[in-house]
UniProtKB/TrEMBL annotation:
<protein>
    <submittedName>
        <fullName>Threonine transporter RhtB</fullName>
    </submittedName>
</protein>
<feature type="transmembrane region" description="Helical">
    <location>
        <begin position="33"/>
        <end position="61"/>
    </location>
</feature>
<keyword id="KW-0812">Transmembrane</keyword>
<dbReference type="GO" id="GO:0005886">
    <property type="term" value="C:plasma membrane"/>
</dbReference>
<dbReference type="Pfam" id="PF01810">
    <property type="entry name" value="LysE"/>
</dbReference>
<keyword id="KW-1003">Cell membrane</keyword>
<keyword id="KW-0472">Membrane</keyword>
<feature type="transmembrane region" description="Helical">
    <location>
        <begin position="144"/>
        <end position="167"/>
    </location>
</feature>
<feature type="transmembrane region" description="Helical">
    <location>
        <begin position="68"/>
        <end position="86"/>
    </location>
</feature>
<dbReference type="InterPro" id="IPR001123">
    <property type="entry name" value="LeuE-type"/>
</dbReference>
<dbReference type="GO" id="GO:0015171">
    <property type="term" value="F:amino acid transmembrane transporter activity"/>
</dbReference>
<keyword id="KW-1133">Transmembrane helix</keyword>
Length: 206
């Protein structure tokens, strides 16, 4: 319960994950919003398992490993954001916002899932968070792997509830939000957020 409280507070703080799910829900629809959310949760679960077995401890202790993963993640986020910005300024509005025709999104569910998972897995600060938090909530004598998975599962469940609120709330007014001007603005906002986050990640020290 103590971990759930901490995880809930961290979940509802606006961040890159929320931006990605919100953008997918507005531009590509509810299913791709959920696919993005599940990708993010997959990344979080893998980090939780890594923290439980000690892999994230190595990441936290190794400056080289942290730097390599940090730069890879930063490059991926900047590329993803720059691609969104570039598409949003193309003449063909349907191509720029990720639509082939009104209401027909480009990119499959696997692509949406991969974006969510990739963004989370390539963010080393998620790993550092898990290695800092999970051990504090593992009872003495409990299985590290089992508890690591259980705690990451709690975080994922809370995240899915939060993302569901965002996705379904967006779906109710999606018709208004899918106007070309608003969708282009959404892509530009998301693109700037990704580029900014990636740049910040690259410039920050361990």
């Amino acid at each position: 319960m103590s971990f759930a409280v901490v995880a809930a507070l961290l979940t509802i703080i606006p961040g890159l994950d929320t931006v990605l799910v919100l953008r997918a829900s507005i531009v590509q629809g509810r299913l791709r919003g959920y696919a993005t959310a599940l990708g993010i949760n997959t990344g979080a679960m893998m980090w939780g398992i890594a923290a439980a077995v000690g892999a994230s401890a190595l990441l936290a202790a190794s400056e080289t490993a942290f730097t390599v993963l940090k730069l890879a993640g930063a490059a991926y986020m900047v590329w993803l954001g720059a691609t969104m910005l570039w598409r949003s300024f193309r003449r063909n509005a349907s191509a720029s916002v990720g639509l082939d025709a009104p209401g027909r999104p480009r990119g499959g569910l696997a692509s949406a899932w991969a974006k969510g998972a990739g963004t989370n897995l390539l963010n080393p600060k998620v790993g550092v968070f898990y290695i800092a938090m999970i051990p504090q909530f593992i009872p003495e004598g409990a299985s590290l792997l089992a508890m690591g998975i259980a705690l990451a599962g709690v975080h994922n469940l809370l995240g899915l509830i939060w993302f569901s609120l965002i996705i379904n709330g967006t779906h109710l007014v999606r018709g208004k939000l899918q106007k070309p001007g608003f969708v282009r603005a959404t892509d530009r906002f998301t693109g700037v957020a990704l580029v900014g986050f990636g740049t910040s990640l690259a410039l920050k020290s361990h």
